[in-house]
Amino acid sequence: MKEELLSVGIDIGTSTTQLVFSKISIENTASSFSIPRIKIVDKEVVYRSNIYFTPLISHRTINGKKIRELIEKEYVLAGVKPSDVKTGAVIITGETARKENASEVIQTLSGLAGDFVVATAGPDLEAIIAGKGAGADLISKKEECIVVNLDIGGGTTNLSVFKDGEVIDTGCLDIGGRLIKIDKTTNRITYVASKIKELARTEGIDIDEGQIVKTENLKKITQGMVRLLEESLNLRVRTEMYNRIITNKGLSIDYSIDYITFSGGVADYIKDEEGQDPIKFGDIGVMLGRCIRDSSIGSRLKMRKSIETIRATVVGAGSHTTDISGSTITYTEEIFPIMNLPILKLSKADEENGLTVLENAIREKLRWFELDNESQQVGIALKGPKNPRFTEIQKLSQSIIKGIDEQLKKAYPVILIIENDIAKVLGQTIYKQLNFNRKVICIDSIKVENGDYMDIGKPLVNGRVVPVVIKTLVFNS
Asked: N or C, where is the chain less crowded by C-beta within 10 Å?
C-alpha cells in the first residue's frame, strides 16, 4: 500500500534562495515474511518557488528574518500550510555556509514545519549533492564511465567526480558568478572578493569597489577564472594562482574524465546566445558562463546535459524512509534518540583494496563534513565482509579506529552502519580495542548512501533492534 507525503526543500545559497515542494510516494517493498523496507517509489515536483537573491545584512551576515519572510510567502503562494508538510530539508551551501549566523538561520527555518534535515553543507558534501542533482552519478553508472560535475554558483565552484555511480573525488574553488557585484543604476562595482582582486592583478588589472565598471576588464577576469577551471580539470598546467583559488582542495590527477556536466546558476549561461546584457543580474555570472562556452573545456571534454542546473542542490526535500536494524547490534549506552546524523558511505573500492586503503578513505572522506576546519559527528557506513573470521574483524576494527582518530579526539561516539550481519561482533571488538571508554553504536542490515541523514530511535523488542529513519535528499533522478 502506497502512502504519500508532502515534502519541502529549502536551499539557501551564495546567490539565491529557493524552495521546492514535492509529493513523495513511499511503499513497503519487502515481502510479507521480511523485515519492512520502506522505499521511495515515486516523486512529483508540485511547486517550484521563485528564485530570490539571498538577502544579506552584510557580506558576512545572512538576513535570517528576510529569508524566513520569503519562505513563508512561498508557502502561501503554493497554498501549503506548515502542518501539511511531513518532511523536508533546509540546506545552506557555498559561501553562505561560511556566514557568521548560518547555523542560527537554519535552526530558525527548521521550525517552519515537520522534522527537517537541517544541514550546513561543506564544500565536499555540497559537491556530491549537486553532482547527484545534475545526474552525473546516473550517467557514470549507466555508461560505466567517469563523469565530473561542475556546480558553479555565486561564490564557489564545487567539483564532484563519479565512477560507475560512486563518488571518487571532490574539490572546490572560489570561483563564482557573484564574486564581483555591480550597481546597475550607477554602473559602479560594489563588491569584489579578495581572491578575485588577486586574480585580477595577475591579469594586469586593479579592480576595487567604487570603480566604474569596464566590460573589457571583467571579461579578462572571467577568462582568468575559466583558465583556473581548466587547470582544475587538468587541461592546463596548474599555477600558483590555482593553489590560491582552491577553497579546501582540488581534484587529483590519477584518472581520465569521460564526460562533463554543469549545474548551478552559471550553468544556464554556458550555452547562452549573445545579445543580452552581460551584467544583467548586477554580477559576472552571464559573462563567466559565456567564457566557459568559448573555452577548451567544452571542446576537449564531452559535455552532457544535466537533469537540473540552478536547482540541482535540492530539487526535492528530505524524505523519511523508516527501517529496522538487524537483531545483532551493539550499543554500549542508551544515548538515543540520535537525530540528523550525516552519513559517510565507503565505496566498494575503499573496502576491497586493503585495510590501509580503508583507513585512509575514512580519514579523507571525513573531511567532506568539515566546516571551517571543524569536524562534526558522522556515521560511518560500509558493507562489511560476509561470514568473516574473528581475526578479520579485529583487523577491520583497528583500521576503522585509525581512520576515525579525529572523531575520537572530539570524544564523539563511534557510530557504524553495516549492511552485512556483523554489527554485534564488530561493535564489541571496537569497544574492547578502545579500552571500554568510548560510546559505540554499531547497527546492521541497513543500507544508506552518501548524502543521507539518519535518525536512530530508542531500542525496541527488549533492546534487540533499533528503529531507524533514513532521510534521503531526493533528486530528479
From this structure: N
